[in-house]
Write a structure and sequence with these properties.
heterodimer, A: alpha+beta, 3 helices, B: mainly beta, nine-stranded antiparallel beta sheet, globular
């Protein structure tokens, strides 16, 4: 029994001391760099963050630009439908709303996008690359739920998060 | 300049001069309606009111699309809440009366319609401008009612009183 334990301990020590190959270091460095630049915040939009969901445990939403779609969608869940359009593959330099737990550890994260392929368009102004400023979204509160109102091409729409964790989008009359 | 009524199947009993379809009708949060609504059956043809060139197209409202056409002296007209006709692209040239789209479904029991706006100041840039209340449109937005008035009598065979304010 004792011999078995010593052998097992040596195995653990040896495994931990395995030299890391150059290619592994390169791979890890590349992944770390890619992760850093997978998305970028958009400083020209104000406010830079709003809340959504239960007032006592809200999630935080931030507008982002997707720099590396592949890495961004590995780090974040890009398959969450929030708006009217069917989900389309996220493109480089496309804008998104990143929704995550509020705080330093931004997990779990949803990357919400909207894009229709024919004209490569979205009616949600904050997701249009040429838009910035202070009139693109604002905080709402309905009872014990935070909601976000987004300006659209025609009018406004309200995004909420239901108790089942699904996003609900409703546009106001044009 | 030849002008064509944009929705041949328009339901004329719903005047574009009456709330909530009229230009200037009140909306939520102090916003004001930037165009006129022409009710028509789902899938009705939408025609270019005169010759012109497509300057923008894309998503607009409740999952529907818009196409904006520079009609020269008439300015830019935005045809909204439609499905854009196949083959119509950015920078396409269109003829007066050409089918540019079809009245689309807004869901939630909302009657289908063409929402139409006019911009006549020769400005450039996006037509929706959230910093410009109460219409939240580009500063060269004009009331499209007179242009519709100009066309509706011939569309109705000279009978114009059904759309009187």
């Amino acid at each position: 029994m004792k011999r078995k334990f010593i052998a097992l301990s040596w195995c653990i020590v040896l495994a931990a001391c395995q030299p890391v190959t150059t290619s592994e270091i390169e791979k890890r460095t590349a992944l770390a760099l890619a992760s850093q630049s997978a998305t970028e915040t958009i400083p020209s939009i104000s406010p830079d963050q709003l809340k959504i969901g239960p007032v006592n445990a809200p999630l935080c939403a931030k507008p982002m630009t997707v720099i590396d779609p592949e890495v961004a969608c590995k780090k974040n869940n890009c398959s969450v439908k929030a708006f009217y359009s069917e989900l389309m593959p996220v493109q480089k330099n496309q804008r998104a709303i990143r929704v995550s737990a509020c705080g330093d550890e931004p997990t779990p994260t949803h990357l919400l996008t909207e894009r229709e392929p024919r004209f490569n368009s979205t009616a949600i102004l904050i997701l249009q690359n040429e838009r910035d400023g202070e009139n693109l979204w604002r905080q709402l509160q309905e009872g014990d739920q935070y909601q976000i109102e987004f300006a659209t091409e025609a009018a406004e729409g309200v995004l909420s998060l239901n108790p089942q964790g699904q996003y609900e989008w409703a546009e106001l009359p044009d | 300049m030849k002008k064509v009524w944009p929705v041949p199947q328009w339901q004329s009993q719903f005047s574009y001069k009456q709330h909530p379809r009229s230009f200037g009708s009140k909306r939520s949060q102090g916003r004001t309606h930037a165009g006129c609504d022409l009710y028509a059956p789902l899938g009705s043809e939408v025609l270019a009111i005169s010759a012109g060139r497509v300057v923008s197209a894309g998503k607009f409202y409740m999952g529907t699309f818009e196409v904006s056409i520079d009609h020269g002296a008439l300015g830019v007209v935005r045809y909204g809440e439609i499905a854009v006709a196949p083959g119509l692209d950015l920078k396409s040239n269109v003829e007066a009366g050409q089918v540019i789209g079809y009245v689309a479904s807004l869901g939630r029991g909302i009657p289908p319609m063409l929402h139409i706006e006019q911009f006549k100041g020769g400005r450039v840039g996006p037509l929706t401008d959230r910093s410009n209340p109460p219409y939240l449109r580009r500063a060269d937005l004009v009331d499209i009612t007179p242009l519709l008035d100009d066309m509706v009598c011939s569309h109705l065979g000279g009978i114009c009183k059904v759309v009187a304010a």
